[in-house]
Amino acid sequence: MKRILLIMTGGTICSFRDSTGHNAADVGKAAPLLIDVLRDSDSPMKDAEFDIISPLDTLSENMSIDKWNILLDAIRKVKLSDYAGIVITHGTDTLHMTAPLIAEVMNGTTIPVGLVASQKPLWEEGANGGENFIKTVEYINALSRYDALQEEYERVFVIYRNFDGISWFHKASELERCADFSEDFYSRNMKDTEDILAKLDFDNNADIKAEASDEKDWGDTVLYRMAPLKNIVMMIDPYVGIDYDSFDISRVKHVLHLTYHSGTADSERLPDFIRKCAASDVDFYLAPVPHDYRYSSTFGLISAGAKPIMDITPWAAYAKLLVQDACKQQ
Question: What are the C-alpha distances in Å from 285 to residues 113, 224, 232, 324?
Answer without folding.
Answer: 29, 26, 13, 14
